[in-house]
Amino acid sequence: MSEKKAAGGLQGVVAGQSAISTVGVGGIGLNYRGYDINDLAYKCSFEEVTYLLLKGHLPNQQQLNELKTLIWQKRQIPCKLKQILETLPKESHPMDIMRTVASIAGILEPETKPGQEYEISIRLISLFGPALLYWHHYSNSGIKINENTGKDSIAENFLKLYHLKSEIDPLVVKTFDVSLILYAEHDFAASTFAARVTVSTLSDFYSGITTAIGTLRGPLHGGANEAAMQYLEPLRSIPQAGQFLNSRYQSKQLIMGFGHRVYKKEDPRSPIIKDFSLQLSKTANGDPTLLAVSQHIEKRMIEEKKIYPNLDFYSASAYKQCGVPTPMFTAIFVISRMTGWGGHIIEQRSNNKIDETCFRLHWACQEIICTNRNEKQCQFMIMYYQNKYNNINVQVGQLNCQSIRVFHISLSEKDDRSC
Ligand code: COA
């Protein structure tokens, strides 16, 4: 009788508790602060999601305007950083540039007192793209770009700076924006866990982020979108895609962009980014062959291996059709996940222990935790909150005598927030 393989790496290790997102309860679904990923992707902007993850609730119009102004101001690249970027070789990997930008920012603008996490998060979210593209254009063609494109969104600013154009197709901007939303947060993913470990030693915010960037880089984590594009690029027909799959099966190599530790069926983010990638493939600058090949690989992987695409698979074709070069894919992930890392560092530092004696409501986190009560009392608490907050739909995620976790709150008609 064959023995079950021992879990490798951190598989099965309970890393901690977090109220920032809920990933794959029962193997499905993803929520940020209680909001379903589909609602967020189709109805919100990345800036709104940034606010949600860092502050715990969606912004109202005024808060959103303030955030947009802050992002615009924090886009400015310090002169000393520009000088350093100009010395970095053009052969550098964009992930090395991102890690270096976080490090240099930590020297030039260090964290000096408690409570700066939100400001530093916004600084890095705003700075990463312009700094990467400053290095890119300078090292490749000697051009010193002006990072300030007005109050554009992070997505539009990135695309304008990369393409050096003043107008970008709105579908390309929306696709890029949606990808930033989808990559923003994923509970205790390896890079997030790494950031939390670093700051738990009372190290500074920037050290947490450099740790996270280094961890994200690996092809089993963030690097999978880049690795997926590398094998997709040369496949220009269905027979070629078939041959590629057969040879990978034979050599028992992984197909990057497939499989997930938590989602045993569909990654809920995959159909969203696939939708945008398909839309792009039907435009003048789209690549229908790339989509046909991708869909063929997806179909066979599901039929023959029962392994489903994760977010990285269709992100590869989406980014490609946005005109972004493959080595930048994981660096874009950094810009996005900076929001989740920031939220987790704030949460880690807040030392949020669950109250031992009674229930409490984390309204900001849309989570109810009820402890040390029997099941009947817990049921009562759920009914109480359902009545009290009648503009939300509450689903109970987990119930036993000691804890109740509400994991899903959907947007309703009565919700007057800006989303
Ligand atoms: N391609 C081919 N086979 C795969 C596969 C993939 N992408 N993902 C899993 N498998 C296979 C494994 O080889 C293993 O086969 P075995 O039982 O014969 O040894 C089986 O499926 C289970 O694999 P396991 O590593 O236990 O799956 P997991 O769910 O723990 O691992 C990942 C999840 C993400 C590490 C894994 O799917 C993977 O490496 N994917 C590719 C990298 C990737 O896309 N990463 C981004 C994740 S969001």
How do the helices and strands line up, and which of them pair or pack?
Layout: E1 21-25, E2 28-32, E3 35-36, H1 37-43, H2 46-55, H3 61-74, H4 79-87, H5 94-108, H6 117-141, H7 154-163, H8 170-183, H9 190-200, H10 205-216, H11 224-232, H12 238-251, H13 270-281, H14 288-305, H15 311-321, H16 329-349, E4 360-362, E5 367-369, H17 375-388, E6 393-399, E7 404-410
Antiparallel strand pairs: 1-2, 2-3, 4-5, 6-7
InterPro entries: Citrate_synth-like_lrg_a-sub (IPR016142), Citrate_synth-like_sm_a-sub (IPR016143), Citrate_synthase (IPR002020), Citrate_synthase_AS (IPR019810), Citrate_synthase_bac-typ (IPR024176), Citrate_synthase_sf (IPR036969)
Family: Belongs to the citrate synthase family.
GO cellular component, one term: mitochondrial matrix
Summary of the model, kept short:
The chain has 419 residues and is mainly alpha-helical. The protein has 17 helices and seven strands. The strands form three sheets. It has a three-stranded antiparallel sheet with strand order 1-2-3. The protein has a two-stranded antiparallel ribbon with strand order 4-5. A two-stranded antiparallel ribbon has the order 6-7.
